[in-house]
Queue: 4 jobs
Job 1
Amino acid sequence: QVQLVESGGGLVQAGGSLRLSCAASGTIFRPNVMGWYRQAPGKQRELVAQITTGGNTNYGDSVRGRFTISRDNTKNTMYLQMNNLKPEDTAIYYCNLRQTNTYWGQGTQVTVSS
């Protein structure tokens, strides 16, 4: 089993920044893929960004150029640096890990005020 714990969400004004963290614990295999997804009220969950064990990254179109995903494999921790935040970035952000199985964190709320 794997446990994922997100932190770093909160309320920020448009144009501001936040940094999310996701700490993974339990039985973790490598290689794996970790990612951030988000879900706004009334909308489907969407990919924000993902990163492989080797550091290859992929971003959703709406965040490319503003968000940066990274990970520290020695700490089994993933980060999401979010800059130039917009009100449409408001959502619950979920951490995801894919190895043999797929695991999700409980989510952290990000609210961007205009």
Note: DSSP finds no helices and eleven strands in the chain.
Job 2
Amino acid sequence: QLVESGGGLVQAGGSLRLSCVASGRAFSTSAIDMGWFRQAPGREREFVAAVRRNSGRASYSDSAEGRFTISRDNAKNTVYLQMDSLKPEDTAVYYCAARYTYQSSYNYWGQGTLVTVSS
């Protein structure tokens, strides 16, 4: 399972750090890529950032580039999303996602954590 934490209410310009731990038999011995998606009210879920297990290479959406930083601790099967210079339009439920490294799609999802940025 994937368990997120770290969401909350923050003023515009502030920062938050999200964490996600992948636990359980499905992830204990397999290499997984991990990422973050978000869904704002009335909008579709969108990609935010991801980090590859083997190369450590990170990728970001245009809106996250330069403001958000994704990192991971492979030993702990944990991924982090440091969000700086937050804007009201970053308000959304943020979901952690995982896939085995040989998969093309993210198939495992957390329950989501709400991030609210006030203006």
Note: The chain has a mean pLDDT of 93.
Job 3
Amino acid sequence: VQLQASGGGLVQAGGSLRLSCAASGRTFSIYRMGWFRQAPGKGREFVARLTWSGGSTYYSDSVKDRFTISSDNAKNTVYLQMNSLKPEDTAVYYCAAQDQATRQYKSWGQGTQVTVSS
């Protein structure tokens, strides 16, 4: 599975951005899609995930009620709608695909920078 993330940018605190992640290749092997982020000097942090078939979602406490993960399976694309952004949301955001067989995130997108100014 190949993943292409897009949609990052610079936004003021309180603003919104929508990230997209387009999947190609063996998309039938995807169990879940997830978004992760990594801020400068910090480790990678889980943000949200969505089950590819069925659409059940789960969020980290830090983004719950502000971010929404969704998908358009016909387009093999997953989205992350980010509202009420805070400076602490500044990070490189990565999408990842969890494999059906191993339930591991085996495919990763290239990352897209999100910068929130105060």
Note: The two ends are 37 Å apart (CA to CA).
Job 4
Amino acid sequence: QVLLVESGGGLVQPGGSLRLSCAAPGIIFSTYTMGWYRQAPEKQRELVADLTSIGSTNYADSVSGRFTISRDNAKNTVTLQMNSLKPDDTAVYYCHAIRNRAYEYWGQGTQVTVSS
């Protein structure tokens, strides 16, 4: 069973920063596109950012310029640095791994709450 383990969520004030990390020890990490999705209450899950095996990035318009995704293939980890956080960023954030549209895994989610 493949496990993606997220960490780093929590409560932060508007304008603050958080750093989410995801460890993926059970896959050939360097071959996967790694990403972060989020789901707010009563909303659909949406892509926040992803990073392909060759280093191409994709960001949702709502986070572009504020969030940065990065990966460390030697440590099998992907990180999402979130700056200038807004209340609208409040959601459960999920780590995601996919390869060849056939091998796909999700983390259990970590709560991010932006509130004063």
Note: The mean pLDDT is 95.
